[in-house]
Design goal:
166 residues, five-stranded mixed β-sheet
């Protein structure tokens, strides 16, 4: 499929304000609450995201996902969402990665470049593309919901979009 300028996603920097409609940015730079702990030898950047997973007797789980790097340009042809809980991704390296989100499958997605180890926490029900690691295999700590119910919906997009890179 060929791309047109209308279908090329502009990659934005990941900031708390720009990403707020879709979730939280997990990084010290995004913190609004910091205090010292451990006898003043450590800083806690507090409450960077809310783990939302109690619907239908769900419970939080912590996992590691190893993402293979994607080559750019990359076609965005599907989205998924988790209607029963939030989902957080925190990279275990400072390698950058891309985050693609949308208000709905019928709205044009937005693309963000996450750098310097910043993570994201998608709000419950946020439409997003699966992980898009760049340049290297990247491990992510994932905090999300386990339990009863179907917590993953996937859709194929009627309009295709292209990521050209950050």
């Amino acid at each position: 499929m060929s791309s047109s300028k209308a279908n090329v996603l502009i990659v934005e920097p990941l900031t708390g304000a720009a990403f707020a409609p879709f979730g939280d940015v997990i990084s010290a730079a995004a913190s609004t609450q910091m205090f010292f702990i451990n006898d003043g030898t450590a800083q806690r950047f507090h409450a960077l995201g809310n783990v939302d997973c109690s619907d239908q007797n769900g419970h939080p789980v912590i996992s590691v996902v190893r993402a293979q790097p994607r080559a750019l340009p990359f076609e965005i042809c599907m989205l998924e969402r988790h209607p029963l809980g939030s989902q957080a991704f925190v990279p275990q390296s400072t390698a950058g990665y891309l985050v693609v989100v949308a208000e709905s499958p019928t709205h044009a997605p937005r693309a963000f470049f996450a750098a310097n180890g910043a993570g994201v926490n998608f709000h419950r029900g946020t439409w997003h593309h699966p992980l898009l690691a760049l340049n290297a295999i990247t491990d992510f700590i994932v905090i999300d919901r386990a339990g009863e119910g179907d917590n993953c919906e996937e859709v194929e997009l009627a309009t295709r979009y292209w990521l050209q890179g950050p």
